[in-house]
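User: I'll paste a sequence; please echo it back and then give the predicted structure.

Assistant: Echoing your sequence first, then the prediction.
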Amino acid sequence: MFNRQILAGFIVENGIEAEILRLEAETKTVAAAAAVLGVKPEQIIKSVLFLANGEPVVAIAGGQARIAWKRLADHLGISRRRLKTAKAEQVLEITGYVVGSVPPFGHRQPLRTVVDTAVYDQKTVYGGGGDIDALLRIQTAELCRVVGAETANLSES
């Protein structure tokens, strides 16, 4: 199983400008994470693993946003019925990380990643840091450089 140390090694090896923050308090919600960090809830992001026609795809969106499955399916050029969220054991097997700690990059293998355009409304974001008690801080310009520039309007209110 991957953890924050493995993620930290990936960050160094790939020259990524990001920092892993270890949290003292439990942050099971976006609001709790934002409060502990002293940031806006809009700055907290999530990395959700989907299976599109059986192929893994990571969707990155704001932590409070609902990902519009139809929009993601349309962006990927598949039927909505061919899009599924990965189960917890699939997330661990494919990314190397447990649900709730999945970072936007540094997975077992490079994964196609689609970022919700709203994420780039923020200058700095915080996402999974490799462990349940860790978050990754990264500038959105650096996030784009690392995961690629594939974006789509994925969130719905």
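The longest helix spans residues 4-13. The longest strand covers residues 45-52.
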